[in-house]
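Please check the following.

. . .
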Amino acid sequence: MTVKIEEFNNIITIKRENGNDTIIKIIQLPAMSAWELQAEYTDFKQTKDKKYREDFTVKLLSNASVVLDNAEIQLNTKALINNHLRSWVEIKTVFEAILNCHQIDPQNHSENPNYWTKAGKELATSFTASVVELITPFLTNDEK
């Protein structure tokens, strides 16, 4: 199997030895949906729950469709996925292409899953310290 990815068109062509190529079109998500996707992907990477991982895989792959004679078939069930993506390598290829299309790096995205939580805490701590420093002079009752 040879895989050719056309980045700008969000099209993946899976070239098979028998000459039956499969063309996959990645559906571009709206910004808020992509934001949620990146958070869910972090959970996916950390869990060992087989059902959750399978459900997330189907959900993610539903953002791709197979192009057949001017028609598109969305990959939104396990049966459709198994019918059109014939090996785990093809599933992985499309899975990662969907993530990449939404600027989610499959290898490095979840290395620091609590980055924004930690950054938010640090920002809040810094803000609180600055506010305390600014209002302290007004809280003292030194009468001269």
Observations:
- Residues 27 and 139 are 57 Å apart (CA to CA).
